[in-house]
């Protein structure tokens, strides 16, 4: 890395990290925002009072329909977050960085202004605003992932760091919730986020390339503030050299056998990778784990309300705890990338003596990461399946670690297992297809709220735990009166 370009590259890295941390994935702090929306009486007309208990005294309102409405908004937003990643990746590959970022800024600003000026009477606008917010955020992430190309052997670490920042950005809604409780209106918070678009525009033209950051990085590469009139030509030439190098070093043959010299020189099409078994199995792995995460986030407010017996103060405390743990995703994710980078360097040394291909080395370095991510998600699922409220603190910790490893590992795996010229499209395709699976979260939520009578299916496995936990909370609260929701 040339010495004179280091300050600019560090500035790009840090500002990109801040951008992902503050804006890209804030939808996944949905539980905090739902708490505010309920306080503002959004969709409260859907709540129905239960039958009278004694005389004229009625029980707590049945807000199942309200919870379903919020779950549907989150389902739509999370679906668009993934499904639109494919066209977003195509836009990034076809029209390059500047166009993709300007589109992201437009969508994001429109969404935040829409949320700012909604009220309980116009709450249906959230069905429009949340998908736009998520599409703008994923475009921010996609355009920033290429920053890892500036730092050579630390590429996977930076990619996972950015994905961790994407996860941690869900804490933004916690900040909005805490400010709301201190008297700052929801409108003021979202107007401030809208004004921050000026910062995004400045970063687009000053600290990001107009095209793509190539990998491997050519000598004397310049961009942003340092780019001259020949930037486009230079990027086109480096892209061509990148394709040639990828064709000879990283492109696997169609049947994944040991290639001959002439086979290595032939570049393969995007669809040959998209239809490969490697991509298909990775898609299945990502989709199943992601579905569980989305279901947990989308139903968290309802789950906590159920476990806390409707105590709003207790629900608020656990919602804050969940959102705070999300912030630490940015600290968890780089360890996954660091693991992959270290293993890749180790296997590269071994490959020199054994004659293994670069693709084999890359895939071997990814296997421990994928296995560790799977084990973390299994632990998270088991803890979440036990309806004991204090245990949810452990659930929150395992959830943020496994989620950080999931998305960071997904992006890093795609950069290792497939050529970089197809990264945007492959990243978008795997997220888009996994989005279709994520739509199952709404019928599952409806099933929980309906036939299961607000008890998740896994709670039937632990009926004795449920009884003990209810007794524990009644005694800990001193049989105090529970506030209705």
UniProtKB/TrEMBL annotation:
Pfam families given in the database record: MFS_1 (PF07690)
A GO CC annotation recorded here is:
membrane
Q: Where is the composition biased (Basic and acidic residues)?
A: 240-258
Give GO terms: molecular function aspect only. transmembrane transporter activity
Give the way it sits in the membrane: Multi-pass membrane protein
Compartment(s) where it occurs, according to its Swiss-Prot or TrEMBL record: Membrane
Which InterPro entries does the entry mention? MFS (IPR011701), MFS_trans_sf (IPR036259), SLC43A3 (IPR027197)
What parts of the sequence cross the membrane? 12-37, 70-92, 99-117, 123-147, 279-297, 317-340, 361-387, 393-414, 426-448
Name the UniProt key words of this record, in alphabetical order. Membrane, Transmembrane, Transmembrane helix
List every stretch annotated Disordered: 234-265
Q: What is its main location?
A: membrane
Checking PANTHER family in the record gives: EQUILIBRATIVE NUCLEOBASE TRANSPORTER 1 (PTHR20765:SF1), SOLUTE CARRIER FAMILY 43 MEMBER 3-RELATED (PTHR20765)
Instruction: Output this protein's name.
Output: Solute carrier family 43 member 3
Ranked from the top, the taxonomy reads: Eukaryota, Metazoa, Chordata, Craniata, Vertebrata
Gene that this polypeptide is encoded by: SLC43A3
């Amino acid at each position: 890395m040339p010495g004179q370009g280091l300050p600019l590259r560090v500035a790009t890295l840090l500002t990109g990290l801040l951008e992902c941390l503050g804006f890209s994935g804030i939808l996944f702090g949905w539980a905090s925002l739902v708490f505010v929306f309920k306080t503002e009486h959004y969709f409260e007309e859907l709540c129905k009072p239960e039958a009278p208990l004694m005389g004229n005294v009625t029980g707590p309102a049945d807000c199942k329909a309200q919870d379903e409405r919020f779950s549907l908004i989150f389902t739509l937003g999370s679906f668009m977050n993934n499904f639109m990643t494919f066209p977003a990746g195509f836009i990034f590959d076809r029209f390059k960085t500047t166009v993709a970022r300007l589109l992201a800024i437009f969508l994001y600003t429109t969404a935040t202004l829409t949320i700012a000026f909604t009220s309980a009477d116009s709450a249906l606008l959230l069905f429009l605003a949340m998908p736009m917010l998520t599409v703008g955020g994923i475009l921010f992430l996609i355009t920033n992932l290429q920053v890892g190309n500036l730092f050579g052997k630390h590429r996977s670490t930076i990619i996972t760091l950015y994905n961790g920042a994407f996860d941690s950005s869900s804490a933004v809604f916690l900040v909005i919730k805490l400010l709301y409780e201190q008297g700052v209106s929801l409108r003021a918070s979202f107007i401030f986020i809208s004004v921050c678009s000026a910062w995004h525009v400045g970063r687009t033209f000053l600290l990001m390339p107009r095209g793509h950051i190539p990998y491997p990085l050519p000598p004397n590469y310049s961009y942003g503030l340092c780019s001259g009139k020949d930037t486009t030509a230079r990027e086109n030439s480096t892209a061509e050299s990148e394709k040639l190098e990828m064709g000879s070093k990283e492109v696997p043959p169609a049947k994944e056998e040991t290639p001959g010299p002439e086979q290595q020189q032939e570049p393969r099409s995007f669809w040959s990778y998209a239809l490969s078994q490697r991509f298909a199995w990775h898609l299945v792995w990502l989709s199943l784990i992601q579905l569980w995460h989305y279901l947990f986030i989308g139903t968290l407010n309802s789950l906590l309300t159920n476990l806390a017996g409707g105590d709003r103060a207790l629900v608020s405390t656990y919602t804050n705890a969940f959102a705070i743990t999300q912030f630490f995703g940015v600290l968890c994710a780089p360890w996954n990338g660091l693991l992959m980078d270290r293993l890749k360097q180790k296997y590269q040394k071994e490959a020199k003596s054994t004659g293994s291909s670069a693709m084999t080395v890359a895939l071997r370095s990814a296997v421990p990461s994928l296995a560790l991510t799977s084990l973390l998600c299994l632990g998270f699922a088991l803890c979440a399946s036990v309806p004991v409220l204090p245990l949810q603190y452990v659930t929150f910790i395992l959830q943020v670690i496994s989620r950080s490893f999931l998305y960071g590992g997904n992006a890093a795996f795609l950069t290792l297992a497939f050529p970089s010229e197809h990264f945007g499209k492959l990243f978008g395709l795997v997220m888009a297809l996994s989005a279709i699976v994520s739509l199952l979260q709404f019928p599952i939520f409806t099933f929980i709220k309906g036939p299961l009578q607000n008890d998740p299916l896994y709670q039937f496995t632990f009926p004795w735990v449920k009884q003990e936990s209810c007794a524990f909370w009644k005694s800990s609260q001193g049989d105090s009166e529970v506030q209705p929701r």
